[in-house]
Amino acid sequence: MKNRIDTRIQPSEITPREGYNRRHFIQLAAGVSLTGLLPKQLFAADALDATKASAYTLPDEKTPFKDVTHYNNFYEFSTSKEEPADLAHTLKTRPWTITVEGEVHHPKVFDIEDLLKLATMEERIYRLRCVEAWSMVIPWIGYPLSELIKQVEPTGNAKFVEFTALYDPLQMPGQRSSVLEWPYVEGLRIDEAMHPLTLLTFGLYGQVLPNQNGAPIRVVVPWKYGFKSPKSIVKIRFVEKQPVSAWMKAGPEEYGFYSNVNPAIDHTRWSQAKERRIGDFFKRATLPFNGYAEQVAQLYTGMDLKKNF
Ligand code: MTE
Fold it and tell me: Facing residues of 49 across strands?
């Protein structure tokens, strides 16, 4: 997102959802002709079941699967948006554990298999608005991060939550470059982390997260710019002081801790007033809090969001 970012969308990036359709067809074929004969997993080993969360759907058209999975920001692999889809296969997503520690009564190392079973998986359609002024609409699968937080019981000193992604330059070749300080670190205030919209995310479009979207586990915070949604996390730490994120270190005047989507506050190098939905030709106005103001604006009552950008 630093100097290399190119906000132009190439026509070649706007492609049909053939990847999704192919998989869907295979699943359908399996369901129709082979039900009861062979386990479904043989045909769609990466399927992830979820109930549709009706309170969290949007009227917006979904961004095609192909774009969601082939236009990614994942600097651990590349600063190009096209390359993570090709490169992320080197990420090993099993075994995988998440260490939850710091200001909690019950610190614990969770195995990913246990986290998958911790709460009911929901499909929630969220807007993702990237700081570079493009956006997508993605059917994520996960459950509220608060479900995990409840398990470890934060102490009264826990004011913030810090997320740390995997550091392993052998699996993540982009970490050999110093474009960011590794590992990728992000943070939320505890009430933001506990907010029902904040999703601990394991999948999208009916399947487990493709590696390039942050497998096997990431966080999605829909009212903030996309970089506040850390991918491939291995540690969650509860702390008293506001964490310093990888982006704040890289450009403190460009990337604030809060980074709520705010059309009125420009990025130092471009306007945030509009966004281009991937697949659209025309830009549209960006909504305050990415359209989630009704749910989250009260978290910031009395705060100067120009100062706390
Ligand atoms: N998480 C990690 N670990 N590394 C990253 O480079 N990029 C962020 C965020 N999470 C990033 C990350 C940015 S800038 C965006 S816009 C979103 O992931 C993109 O998520 P997506 O590729 O699933 O759409």
Answer: none
